[in-house]
Design a protein that fits this description.
By secondary structure, the protein is α/β, with parallel strands linked by helices. The chain folds into two domains: 124 residues, ATPase, nucleotide binding domain (Nucleotidyltransferase, domain 5, 2-Layer Sandwich); 70 residues, Nucleotidyltransferase, domain 5. Helices cover 32% and strands 31% of the residues. The chain has a five-stranded mixed sheet, sandwiched between helices. β4, α2 and β5 form a beta-alpha-beta unit.
């Protein structure tokens, strides 16, 4: 089985080809504002270098957010179109879970965090030993998260690509794609058309529209 992994939920492109549980090719590249322009060509180059054809792919694992609204849409569009056209299974995974799985070090709890601005984060708390969430993914204020963490016992580590002012260990996100795929590959696949973007919060336009309705 050959699996394609794809994550474009930030300014980085994280993608890989996994065969027989081993990564045989991967790209970890910051593309910034060029993400929409270069993601597909980079994937095609990766296929070409390894002599992989689109028909060789038997499964897709795609990260569906939270993160950049534009980035999420780029990855989901590519993955859903590919899965639908080739009639192959597709499995979504959240960016926060992928981040937590990738933590290095002897931590009891991983806190993946994405700066959502205005003093808020997209975050969760992950039990490293049991590979499970003990706080579900949330859009919360820094103060709310700190109050929860202050009540916990155990070694806590943050994983992020953003600059955060926290009192815990912080390490940059370097996805352990082989480990991520190993943990999620046997999950139930979903219909490509039913995969939703995991934004965790409404866009500013949606929030404004909701506010206008409430004030009518």
């Amino acid at each position: 089985m050959i699996t394609l992994y794809l994550d474009t939920t930030s300014s980085f492109l994280y993608t890989a080809i996994i065969e027989n549980d081993s990564v045989i090719a991967e790209i970890k590249e910051e593309l910034g504002n060029n993400l929409s322009e270069y993601t597909l060509p980079r994937i095609e180059e990766m296929f070409s270098v390894k002599g992989i054809q689109p028909d060789d792919i038997g499964k897709i694992i795609v990260v569906n957010g939270p993160g950049s609204f534009t980035g999420i849409r780029i990855g989901l569009t590519i993955a859903k179109t590919f899965a639908w056209a080739k009639n192959i299974p597709i499995i979504p995974i959240s960016s926060l879970e992928a981040m937590a799985i990738s933590i290095d070090g002897d931590y009891d709890y991983a806190v993946p965090a994405i700066d959502a601005r205005r003093g808020c984060l997209y975050t969760s708390i992950y039990d490293v030993k049991n590979n499970s969430f003990i706080m579900d993914e949330k859009y919360v204020s820094n103060d709310t998260l700190n109050a929860v963490l202050d009540s916990m016992i155990g070694k806590i580590g943050f994983v992020t690509n953003d600059v955060l002012d926290v009192k815990y260990d912080v390490q940059p996100y370097d996805p352990k794609i082989e480990k991520i795929v190993s943990l999620v590959k046997d999950r139930d696949s979903v219909n490509p058309h039913s995969i939703d973007a995991n934004y965790l919060k409404m866009t500013e336009a949606e929030e404004k529209k909701m506010s206008e309705k409430e004030n009518d």
